[in-house]
Amino acid sequence: MPAELIALVQDFVHWERRHLDDAANASRQHIQSPANWHRLVLYALTDALAYNFLLVGTLAAYLQEQGLDAELLRRHLQSPDPDRYINQEALDLLAGLMGRPVAEGQQEPTWHFIGRQIAECGAQQGDERRR
Fold it and tell me: 100-121: per-residue pLDDT in tens?
């Protein structure tokens, strides 16, 4: 697996955990206030879900590009439709991770930039580990 994908998984899992921790904390702290409980717990959970969905979509897009058998990908994703995870944000994130250039004259999409940053930070961390 490319180091960029490992860095992506580590980064996104970190943020997912933070949001899940926020949900757990909100569920304890706001038990006496149902309106705040619902709002804060659901915000945190949907934030974690968004990270997870984008992570799965990016990995699925990478595996499709690599020619992984479609049936095997469906089994790994536990979904009859792996394309449901692959949206433009996932494709932009993957392009940034893999260092693909943005089309001339176009502004860099946000997720492309984030992918590029994750790849650069992951490469720097890998260099530090090798020293």
Answer: 999 999 999 999 999 999 999 9
Place of tokens 């994703």: 77
pTM: 0.88
In tens, the pLDDT along 42-79 reads 999 999 999 999 999 999 999 999 999 999 999 999 99
* Burial class of 111 by CB neighbour count within 10 A (0 to 12, 13 to 18, 19+): buried
CA distance 81 to 71: 10
* CA dist., res. 5 & res. 103, Å (int): 22
Distance CA 7, CA 120 (A): 9
